[in-house]
Amino acid sequence: MLTDILSDFRVFIALLCAILIIFLIIGIIIGRIIQRTKDIFLIKREREDAVRRSRAVLGGLVGEQIAPFLPDFPCNPGDARFIGKPVDFIAFPGCTEGKTVKDVLLIEVKSGESRLSEREREIKAAVKAGRVHYVEYHLPE
Questions:
Q1: What is the DSSP letter of 105?
Q2: C-alpha 9: how far from its chain's center?
Q3: Which residue, among 56, 109, 49, 104, has the nearest Cα to 84 in the 3D structure?
Q4: For 81, phi and psi rounded to 5 degrees?
Q5: Span between the terminal Cα atoms of the chain, in Å
Q6: What's the pTM?
Q7: What is the pLDDT of residues 74-120, one digit of tens each?
């Protein structure tokens, strides 16, 4: 009788272990499916974000190049020279018309909601503080 009880208990434990292993396998499979679904969603979202950012950057680059020919640009397009970094243009108003150059402009073109970078803010502060100098450099012979 005790052997029958032990035998039944062993069968019960074996069935319980088999059921737990099946649930574990099902859980792993469901977890992988859920993770793959999340990964697909995240990759799609990140790609859309990358495309959106790329378009914004390209739009900004095009905007920088055509800015001198748009209304309200601060000087004649012929007076502006594209630099690109750390400011977009340096301009000498009056230069192309043969007038006296009274000002030198550092022009930073922005589009959309873009803001000045840390370096651009430093340059703006240096100009406002009057820390701008003209340096003449002679090549060594």
A1: E
A2: 63
A3: 109
A4: -120, 125
A5: 113
A6: 0.63
A7: 999 999 999 988 999 999 999 999 899 999 999 999 887 889 999 99
